[in-house]
Design brief:
Blueprint lengths: L13 H15 L19 E8 L5 E2 L2 E2 H14 L3 E13 L4 H18 L2 E10 L7 E11 L14 E5 L5 H11 L15 H10 L5 E3 L5 H13 L2 E5 L7 H10 L13 E5 L3 H9 L8 E7 L6 E4 L5 E3 L13
Parallel strand pairs: 4-5, 9-12
Antiparallel strand pairs: 1-6, 2-3, 4-6, 7-10, 7-11, 8-10, 9-11, 12-13
Protein name: Hydrogenase expression/formation protein HypE
Family: Belongs to the HypE family.
Pfam families: AIRS (PF00586), AIRS_C (PF02769)
Length: 334
């Protein structure tokens, strides 16, 4: 194959077949995908969760991952937030003519490693190559499907007054990493994306604690925006304790210099858990037993004081409203 992606690779002809067999199937192949049918034949039963997502992150390579691993992690996590075991994915690539073939292989190889770690199969896909300038390097679209294993499933409208609000770890890591890499910023301490598949931890959590009301991953818009969505959907107030918020010193320092708020920065390997307060300690025990939940902590409580609002209790004991993200703080972070 050429050392760069050519328009011919998206033509559906011989070059396309070589790209599929020598690159995509090499890293993503499985019994179903290898059949190269127009659609996948799957066995599903009961209630399923399905999610779709598109990935346009800039840059496509960053500390802690690349657009390929991010596409898998983001899709797997969205399905798992419904109390589901992710099973299958589809993946479509829109590739800019001239993308180095070595870069495409790194991206697809990272996806292969990520789906194996998550225990998910990519069962259908598509590749389009567009003229130079029509897209920026590569965009990836995915769909994920999984089996819901709890009833009722966690949902953003199920939070209740008295519920504890937990976060699985530090916030803002991914957003600051993308900004720093894009702008060539040299932070004194290494900042790395938290991008990871959370499904194994989440499945363990809901199996042991089916009482969980809400699971959400605070990606675009960050923690504050996600909590606002939950508060609005459930008609409750989220009282957030500023002193309890887990932020790495290097992230806090970077945000201070750049005038950013970690509460509004994207995360790609963390989740919010809202559940009855009496189960909070058990949930934290389960989360902390997993490396991806080692920094889990309680950060707030749901009340009926200001329905639909998020209130931050500051270090000094004051209170201020946290709104949803206004505008675009960091474009193309996922």
């Amino acid at each position: 194959m050429s050392d760069k992606v050519l328009l011919d690779y998206g033509s559906g002809g011989r070059a396309s077949q070589r790209l599929i067999s020598e690159l995509f199937l090499k890293h993503l192949g499985n019994d179903e995908l290898n059949r190269l049918n127009d659609a996948a034949e799957l066995s599903v039963s009961g209630r399923i969760a399905m999610s779709t997502d598109s990935f346009t992150v800039d840059p496509i390579f960053f500390p802690g991952g690349n657009i390929g691993s991010l596409a898998v992690h983001g899709t797997v996590n969205d399905v798992a937030m419904m109390g589901a075991v992710p099973r299958y994915m589809t993946c479509a690539y829109i590739i800019e003519e001239g993308l180095p073939m070595a870069d495409l292989e790194k991206i697809v190889a990272a996806m292969g490693e990520a789906v194996r770690e998550a225990g998910v199969l990519i069962v259908s896909g598509d590749t389009k190559v567009v003229p130079k300038g029509a897209v920026d390097k590569i965009f990836i679209n995915t769909t994920g499907i999984g089996d819901i294993i709890v009833d009722p499933a966690p949902s953003g409208d199920r939070a209740r007054p008295g519920d504890a609000v937990l976060i699985s770890g530090t916030i803002g890591d991914h957003g600051l990493t993308i900004l720093g890499t894009r702008e060539g910023l040299d932070f004194q301490a290494r900042v790395e994306s938290d991008s990871a598949s959370l499904n194994h931890l989440l499945v363990r959590l809901v199996r042991e604690l089916p009482e969980v009301h809400v699971l959400r991953d605070p990606t675009r818009g960050g923690l504050a925006t996600t909590l606002n969505e939950i508060a609005w959907s459930s008609n409750v107030c989220c009282e957030l304790d500023e002193a309890s918020l887990p932020v790495r010193p290097e992230v806090a320092g970077g945000c201070s210099i750049l005038g950013l708020d970690p509460l509004y920065l994207a995360n790609e390997g963390k989740f919010l858990c809202v559940l009855p307060g009496e189960h909070a300690e058990k949930a934290l025990e389960i989360m902390r037993a997993d490396p991806l939940g080692g920094d889990a902590c309680r950060i707030g409580t749901m009340t009926d004081a200001n329905p639909g609002k998020v209130v931050l209790i500051t270090h000094l004991g004051g209170k201020r409203l946290l709104g949803m993200l206004e505008g675009e703080q960091l474009p193309r972070i996922c």
